[in-house]
Design a protein that fits this description.
The structure holds two protein chains of two kinds. Chain A is mostly beta strands. Chain A contains no helices and eleven strands. Chain B starts with a strand and ends with a strand. Classes of the chains: A mainly beta, B mainly beta.
Chain lengths: ~120, ~110
């Protein structure tokens, strides 16, 4: 199956710093990628839809200036958590939809665990 | 959750028994998918059932979909200790291409 790679898999940072997480589709092109956030023992919450070459679409309640998304190519989307605080500590997961693929078929990365001290 | 609820929230069974998890959702959908997540890991796609399908099988997995009741069930037969994980249903809404996840069921299979 198609492979989506996330990097880093885990990161620890100090409060106030910014952290960038990358999501790459390794063997397919992804016009659309999705970013999810997951708190311990909870479900995945869709944060935003990342569209190649255009602005991301954010879900209600997600701060655009806090979570910057860039989808500069058909194989890479990045999520930058700006001025991170301890409450931003979470598990962030990306998924990608293959361009021209079947509707709703998504491939997930392994996730990135962010800990803000 | 953004889309629906699952029950039970947690399920503990003996190896060899069957496990049934239920999912209810709120809106009209294009398809419904089930995913598995081991602790602290990414998601593994298990099975996809389209809105015009009522039942689907894949190995030891059986999924049903009742669009009139906006519900789905996942049955894992002859469970194994390695099936221990969290299971999530997720829906693709009609006219959309993103997934919204249910609350999940934590399954523990005791050897």
């Amino acid at each position: 199956g198609a492979v989506v790679s996330q990097h880093p898999s885990w990161v620890i940072c100090k409060s106030g710093t910014s952290v960038k997480i990358e999501c790459r589709s390794l063997d397919f092109q992804a016009t659309t990628m999705f970013w999810y956030r997951q708190f311990p023992k909870q479900s995945l919450m869709l944060m935003a839809t990342s569209n190649e070459g255009s602005k991301a679409t954010y879900e209600q309640g997600v701060e655009k200036d806090k979570f910057l998304i860039n989808h500069a190519s058909l194989t890479l989307s990045t999520l930058t958590v700006t001025s991170a605080h301890p409450e931003d500590s979470s598990f962030y997961i990306c998924s990608a939809s293959e361009t021209g693929g079947r509707t709703g078929e998504l491939f997930f990365g392994e996730g990135s665990r962010l800990t803000v001290l | 959750s953004q889309q629906g609820e699952e029950d039970p929230q947690a399920l503990s069974i003996q190896e060899g028994e069957n496990a049934t998890m239920n999912c209810s959702y709120k809106t009209s959908i294009n398809n419904l998918q089930w995913y598995r997540q081991n602790s602290g890991r990414g998601l593994v796609h298990l099975i996809l059932i389209r809105s015009n399908e009522r039942e689907k099988h894949s190995g030891r997995l059986r999924v049903t979909l009742d669009t009139s009741k906006k519900s789905s069930s996942l049955l894992i037969t002859a469970s194994r200790a390695a099936d221990t994980a969290s299971y999530f249903c997720a829906t693709v809404r009609t006219g959309a291409n993103n997934l919204f996840f249910g609350t999940g069921t934590r399954l523990t299979v005791i050897p």
